[in-house]
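Table S2 (continued). Query chain:
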Amino acid sequence: MKRFFIGALAFIGALSILFVVGVVGLLMLAASSKPGVPSNLVLELDLQQPLPEYTLDTSLAGAFGEEPTSLRDVVEGLEKARTDPRVKSLVVRIGQPGSAAQVQELRDAVKAFRASGKRAVAYADGFGEAGNGTGAYYLATAFDAVYIQPSGDVGLTGLVMETPFARDAFAKFGVKPEFGKRAEYKNAVNTFTDAAYGPHQREATEAYGLSLFNQVVKGVAEGRKLSEDEVRALIDRAPFMGQQAVDAKLVDGLRYRDEIHDELKQQAGDGAQLLYVDKYLERAGRPNQTGTTIALIYGVGEVLRGKSQSNPLSGGQVMGGDTVAAAFRKAVEDPSVKAILFRVDSPGGSYSASDTIRREVQRAREAGKPVIVSMGTYAASGGYFVAMAGDKIVAQPGTLTGSIGVYNGKFVTSELWAKLGVNFDTIAFGKNATFSSSDQEFTPEQRTQLESELDTIYLDFTSRAAQARNMPLEKLQSVARGRVWTGEDALERGLVDALGGYAKALELAKEAAKLEKDAPVRIVVFPRPRPTGQVLSELLGKHDADNSDDEAAGSQAVMSSQVLEQVRAVYRVGAKLGLMGQGAEGRMLYAPVPEVRW
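Corresponding output:
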């Protein structure tokens, strides 16, 4: 019997080795037979869903399925295509393009593509279909021409901000939120403690929304060659059905997909083919692959201690303090790296994890490696904390920025459990052993301790921000107070240095590295993507890290599937109400993003 078990284990081990060797062999075979780029092509892009900023462990995703196209993939694909004579034009189907900052990043890329003399066309079944299509249409106006189906509409109806307030629901269930915050605009806890917008939250939310609205109006006016007053009047009259949209000069015609594609291929010339942007980039190669090395480090998702990882329920990612800090150390140690581009897309999170990353940004600069920060959808609270030590900060006009503040506290659930017939009895050793307990309210002494902790963290945050931004503390605190700003408003208040996206950040990184504006550079992502074989071996339980830096530079990736979508919808509602997530410990520097429907 013993021999049987030994033989069975040996057989399973041999199969595992053969499986890994087989997968690697198939990947090598696939790479060797990779098709080329057609000699005459029309680039195609489908934006039915927002593009991810970054995907963890892409080597594994690429081994077992289609690797998702990222925002950077599209931006660099269009950059590559600008100077490629094989690419004649671009056609994009627009559905749900994402946040204001993401839309603006895509608009910038499309405008740069058009500036090379190549044609870009946007189309949609309809922008909104009796709903709000403002964001999608805003993106479309960056193109040479915009078309919808004859049955389509243009729902250019403006934007609306929505925030849930669950105070009364918590009260009915017997849950008591006990929180403190710094300062009056730190609105993360208002969902738990209030029944509606208070004066400070309303003021900040209205200002943020108005700034976004004005950016949309300006962009649409420029793209469609209308005055801003005309655009505002059209918004108040929307939505428009097909011919109405044509008459209002919002679209250039009513056409179906096949008509648009046939026309573009005919204009491109004989034998023209369609090719997705990501496939083109894969075959043609990325730009910025030769020259002086610039490191690209991603800080995406809620900031927490430990490794970066993906969340299969939210569909989002976690910015692990250990992983991002290790990436900075690796980039600093690499003698070929002359500057670091730090892409931040985060609503914040853990104070200590944020400080871990901020420290490595500071150390990189002290080591002579300038750090340029590029902000995505948001860089708020802890997301701003990790960014503020950079040499320069770049944000899109619509990037949610700031929220320099802190909150902490807990939910007391003893009454809820009592209603359910459950009673918790407590035996504690230590006067403050129940400080974080959900069974008991804060004692007066514990409440004093909480308030003191908030004061300390807020002073540390604002002091470090003032030093990093070369600003008197009093001035910094006047624009802090937990308040969020658009990137455009943040620029006016000294919280960022320039408006733009990847292209602007790269320009500043070259400048910081003392390179000419048109100097060739090689962008390298840190931490380096792990080989597929290594990822597979780790799944089988083998870990090859030699030290803590190697261990931290990895990630904990969870591959999600379509069956999770319905669960995610429920999760997102719970997350808004504070019922999901990492708890108060990990969310002291956190800014919930206002839900913008557009």
